[in-house]
From TrEMBL:
Gene Ontology molecular function: any one: GTP binding
Name of this chain's protein: Signal recognition particle receptor subunit beta
Subcellular localization(s) per the UniProt record: Endoplasmic reticulum membrane
One protein family per Pfam: SRPRB
Gene3D superfamilies reported in the protein's UniProt record: P-loop containing nucleotide triphosphate hydrolases
Protein family per UniProt: Belongs to the SRP receptor beta subunit family.
Gene (UniProt): srprb
Highest taxon of the lineage: Eukaryota
Amino acid sequence: MEADSVRDPGTMEEKADLEMAENPFEQYIESVRQELENQDPIFIIGIIVALAVVVITFVFLKYFLSSKTVRSAVLLVGLCDAGKTLLFSRLLSGKFKRTQTSITDSSAPYRAKSDRGSTWTLIDLPGHDSLRPQYMEKFKSAARAIVFVVDSAIFQKEVRDVAEFLYFLLTDPVIIRNAPALLLACNKQDITMAKSAKLIQQQLEKELNTLRVTRSAALSSQDGSVGGSVYLGKKGKDFEFSQLPMKVEFLECSARGSKGEEGNADIDSLEKSLAKL
Ligand SMILES: Nc1nc2c(ncn2[C@@H]2O[C@H](COP(=O)(O)OP(=O)(O)OP(=O)(O)O)[C@@H](O)[C@H]2O)c(=O)[nH]1
Ligand SMILES: [Mg+2]
């Protein structure tokens, strides 16, 4: 059997026949090439442009549709007692609710107060530091926006912890790549001692700047790797929120409201920002 298939081709014609049989596509490619050479160059350019348009449209649609359908979550994050669960209740029903520290997530559809009236999934996450990482891991890739709730009344005491949590979020490769809008809700403005959004922003920029130096030093003294995390802000410049790839807004609100449990919350600024997502 094998001896048959490797027999000596003999004459020149036999050799050519054999070559042709070995490359059945060569003949076809050659005929296409000749056909193209005979065509008008403008016609060929037209075909190439049309193909390019189809490919670009396909890639664009794939990217656009996947990012639209997957990322529809608005995450409420922040330290314990910041007011996430009360804000969750106020945004959904407007009602005041007595809360207890959360130990798991809860979610519900939220209709934004805009003409478009887009519906997002509002997700309240527990603030306890032992639970935070696992819940962030679970929801970070679905985030369209992150509402970072700060207790403005005891901000001075918590500034370091708030900055550490923000650093954790803002050096995460998934969060930086998806760049969900970051809304810093400076809550509990009904309390007289509450710090303004402007002051909170300035202090956080300062604290994050310090944190960046200490964290980078700690990493380079180990093995020089950055542990898969992203550098915060711009190298060689003091940290500012404007250096981040996402839209960042600082706003003031009060989930409790100035009239307490009976009255309405003061969350217009937050609702307006959510309407723009
Ligand atoms: N004065 C005042 N109190 C608030 C405000 N928002 C929330 N609180 C109170 O702060 C406490 C904590 O609120 P939660 O909503 O449970 O806090 P949380 O962020 O969900 O806390 P964890 O679930 O532990 O992460 C509750 O007693 C709320 O009534 C506010 O705007 N002003
Ligand atoms: Mg809670």
